[in-house]
From TrEMBL:
Keywords: Aminopeptidase, Hydrolase, Metal-binding, Metalloprotease, Protease, Zinc. This is Aminopeptidase N. It is an enzyme of class 3 (hydrolase). Belongs to the peptidase M1 family. Its cofactor is Zn(2+).
């Protein structure tokens, strides 16, 4: 049973399923090479699909990939061969009655499954991944989210797998006659096959409990291999916070008696929200102060919450079809972002999310894979777990929240959950619930779901002193994207405020408001404010109220003024970013023209003020001191000149480091308090600024600075400080010393998978250290594993996605290397191959020389033989 040839699927072709599956009973007899799967399905004609005319019953289609069909019976009788037909991608069955039961036996080989989709082995433990279309690699089934069924799962396994898990509640367990273990699980909530999960292994667990708002006790269990049992606490605490938060903020209570999380080392994504049995990439759940950085602690908190929140936004109310993926992902990302904002610093969380959006989502939306948040078509759905679906989708939900207000948004979400509980629905249903609950009109707003591309807003202003009137004129346009030449004006909420010359907020209306939301709905619109007694400085798009590029001709002085006085913390940071972007773009121009580069005095002055102000939130200061990444600069410009970007950035950072060394040092010393590690917002902020200062200090390459890094490294207090010191030594210190330090670090941590991943990533993404030769050495290292996505992401991804300097080596060797890895990976794991090819897909944006090199690398992939559907879609769309 091979997969079907890549074909395009269209939203417009959606049809309700012909048949429904009321009950699904599965029995797994586990074996690495020969797992037997018995499925017993109670099937009935879908009344919604049933034609009123007396047509005969249409065939039943069951998806199936890489399965060996052993037998198939209907209502207890083996089906004769003429009743069914095996085809690429599945099985077609002739139907003779509107209700019947099927019993299907298949054989699969989890050990040979390197795609990590379906049932596979990770370090000897069985686990599943079924979203989006992995269940068809387990058994023949209508593997689509609008077929929802009640599942009962029996697992039979040898005694060396004492832990046998599936969705729902454990209803039976025992041993078979031949001494194997048998456990049965029943999930009372009807669900689509993509939420099915099974785990079997020799696992330990930590247990806790949570009492829900109505007083029900829920058992919480987190399963890992024995060696990781000490790394579960933070995830457990995060889970309990998330459960409480969802009750308080959304009125959502957990519904089963048990909630389980399992950590696995081999996983394509971050984590998966299977009903009652979330499965996590171990890097996204396991942490201890000694082994995990602050960033990891925060990532874990948000992903644990994200998966938990899916229990309502995703599982209780799920997607009708995969075009609606953002229905659950956009909403859930918005929910987890608000949760993290409530748990930590709201402004910092927003800055991090916006940085990701501007860097990577904007680039995606300007490239060959650009697609609307609700796509019209796809070849391989795995390619659509994108920043657009997730992050831009979350921005759409955030805009609805901004437009309606918090209370109205909550009314809308209550209605949405109430109306659609137990159903598979669409993005449209979500918007309608928001409208109906509030009598609101989101007609034009809907275009955000169907129109791709990043809108650009140009702003001009005018002050009329005589009339005391100030007006802002906003013009919007969205550049064409593949398959969408014409763009319509969107409903864009633009939050703003006005600053007076003393930095105070001006009053905007008769109610005394000092901020407001402009509703831009036309191509061009002017908004006028009365009784404005002085020419104000506008603070625009506060909190990044819409995912757009906003242009306004701020001067350097105005940006410095906003950096200090804007009431909106996000916009203070953004002013600093704009200042840095302007500076870096003129430095790039000077570099290209062969001129000497100007000292970035405006930035140096601005940073100097920041470093001396101990009143400001250190986390915010750290964010302001971080220059935009090379990737972000690449997205900003019209044509990417990799060498100019690297030169401009290096020069600016170097100049800042040298000019402000005493300030960096003073701040470093003040912040270097030796306290026991705690992952609290305050402590994370302190360490963040401290390590930003350390990096700048080490950029000077001065002995005393590097000695600080060494001392911090040797103190070995927590992984945040240790890895920051190590990164600084590797990037800026002498090579021999770096080699030795890396070596001893590896010896200390070689047993710890997560730390080894950090160790790989730190080297491959280092601008100075992570040469292609080094990357090849890392791939030959015994701890590297091509079949483990985390290792591939750390080494190959670190190099191709986070090492702008080495990856874009002028000889094109980086591109050729990536092409080789993509070709090799496609045979093992198409999803990973397809994600890794991303940097090559943007070839059109580079200068002619690099564009040619990247194009030929892509072409070589395309000509390398038969590609997976995943990779084929990416490569063919990029070459088109
Ligand atoms: N649905 C998962 C999430 O976002 C992501 C995922 C998709 C995981 C596909 C695995 C496979 O929470
Ligand atoms: Zn999700």
């Amino acid at each position: 049973m091979k997969d079907a040839k890549p074909q395009t699927v269209y939203l417009n072709d959606y049809q309700a399923p012909e048949y429904l599956v009321d009950r699904t009973e599965l029995t797994f007899d586990l074996d690495p090479q020969s797992t037997l799967v018995k499925s017993h399905l109670k099937i009935r004609r879908n009344p919604v699909a049933a034609d009123s005319g007396g047509r005969s019953l249409p065939p039943l289609w069951l998806d199936g990939v890489d399965l060996e069909l052993l037998s198939i019976a209907e209502d207890g009788e083996l089906l004769p061969a003429q009743r069914y037909q095996e085809e690429p991608g599945g099985l077609s069955l002739t139907v003779t009655k509107p209700e019947f039961e099927l019993e299907i036996q298949t054989r699969i080989a989890p050990e040979s499954n390197t795609s990590l989709e379906g049932l596979y082995l990770s370090n000897g433990m069985y686990c599943t991944q079924c979203e989006a279309e992995g269940f068809r690699k387990i058994t023949f089934y209508p593997d689509r989210p609008d077929v929802m069924s009640v599942f009962t799962t029996t697992i039979v396994a040898p005694a060396k797998y004492p832990v046998l898990l599936s969705n729902g509640n454990k209803v039976d367990s025992g041993t078979t006659d031949d001494g194997r273990l048998r456990v049965t699980w029943e999930d009372p909530f009807a669900k689509p096959s993509y939420l099915f999960a099974l785990v079997a292994g020799d696992l330990q667990y930590v247990e806790d409990s949570f009492t829900t708002s109505t007083g029900r006790a829920v058992t919480l269990q987190l399963f890992t291999e024995a060696r990781n049992i000490g790394k579960c606490e933070h995830a457990m605490v995060s889970l309990k916070h998330a459960m409480r938060w969802d009750e308080v903020v959304y009125g959502r209570e957990y519904d089963l008696d048990i909630f389980m999380i399992v950590a696995v080392d081999h996983f394509n994504m971050g984590a998966m929200e299977n009903k009652g049995l979330n499965i996590f990439n171990s890097a996204c759940v396991l942490a201890s102060p000694e082994t995990a950085t602050d960033a990891a602690f925060q990532r874990i908190e948000s992903i644990v919450a994200h998966e938990y929140f899916h229990n309502w936004s995703g599982n209780r109310v799920t997607c009708r079809d995969w075009f609606q993926l953002s229905l659950k992902e956009g909403f859930t990302v918005f929910r987890d972002a608000e949760f993290s904002a409530d748990m930590n610093s709201r402004a910092v969380k927003r800055i991090e999310d916006v940085t990701l959006l501007r860097t990577a989502q904007f680039a995606e939306d300007a490239g060959p894979m650009s697609h609307p948040v609700r796509p019209d078509s796809y070849m391989e759905i795995s390619n659509f777990y994108t920043l657009t679906i997730y992050e831009k989708g979350a921005e759409i939900v955030r805009m609805i929240h901004t437009i309606l207000g918090a209370d109205a948004f909550r009314r809308g979400s209550d209605l949405y959950f109430q109306r659609h509980d137990g159903c598979a629905v669409t993005c449209e249903d979500f918007v309608v619930a928001m409208e109906d609950a509030n009598g609101a009109d989101l007609k034009q707003f809907r275009r955000w779901y169907s129109q791709a591309g990043t809108p650009i807003i140009e702003v001009e202003d005018e002050y009329d002193a005589e009339r005391a009137q100030y007006s802002l004129t906003l013009r919007q346009r969205t550049p064409a994207t593949p398959g969408q030449e014409e763009k319509l004006p969107l409903h864009i909420p633009v939050a703003i405020g006005l600053l007076g010359a003393d930095g105070k907020a001006l009053v905007l209306d008769k109610f005394g408001s000092t901020d407001t939301v402009l509703h831009l709905t036309e191509e061009s619109q002017t908004f006028t404010f009365q009784d404005i007694d002085e020419r104000p400085l506008p603070s625009l798009l506060r909190g990044f109220s819409a995912p757009v590029k906003l242009r306004y001709g701020y001067t350097g002085e105005q940006l410095q003024f906003l950096m200090q006085h804007d009431a909106d913390a996000f916009n203070r940071w953004d002013a600093c970013q704009r200042l840095a972007l302007n500076t870096l773009s003129s430095l790039q121009g000077q570099y290209r023209a062969g001129e000497t580069l100007d000292t970035p005095s405006a930035l140096i002055d601005g940073f100097s003020v920041l470093l001396q102000n101990s009143e400001l939130d250190p986390a915010l200061v750290a964010k302001m001191l971080a220059l935009p990444s090379a990737q972000e600069l690449a997205e900003q410009g019209d044509e990417i000149d990799a060498a100019a970007i690297v030169a401009a950035r290096d020069f600016a950072r170097q100049s800042i480091a040298v000019a402000l060394k005493p300030l960096f040092l003073a701040r470093y010393q003040a912040l270097d308090q030796r306290k026991p590690y705690r992952p609290t917002a305050d402590d994370i902020a302190r360490r963040g600024l401290k390590n930003t200062c350390l990096a700048y200090l080490c950029m000077t390459q001065d002995q005393d600075a590097l000695a600080l890094a060494r001392t911090q490294f040797e103190r070995d207090e927590n992984m945040t400080d240790v890895s920051a010191a190590l990164a600084a030594m590797v990037e800026y210190g002498p090579k021999d010393a770096a080699e030795q330090t890396l070596e001893s670090f590896y010896r200390q941590w070689q047993q710890d998978t997560q730390v080894v991943e950090t160790w790989f990533g730190l080297q491959s993404s280092s601008a100075g250290f992570g040469t292609l030769d080094r990357v090849r050495e890392l791939m030959a290292h015994p701890a590297f594993e091509m079949k483990n996505p985390n290792k591939v992401r750390a080494v190959v991804g670190g190099f191709a996605m986070r090492n702008f300097n080495q990856f874009h080596h002028e000889d094109g060797s980086g591109y050729e290397f990536l092409a080789d890895q993509v070709i090799a990976l496609d045979k093992l794991n198409p999803q990973i191959a397809s994600r890794l090819v991303t940097p090559l897909t943007r070839w059109k944006k580079y200068r002619k020389h690099e564009a040619g090199q990247i194009h030929s690398a892509l072409k070589r992939i395309s000509d390398s033989g038969e590609l997976s559907a995943d990779l084929y879609e990416m490569v063919s769309k990029s070459l088109a």
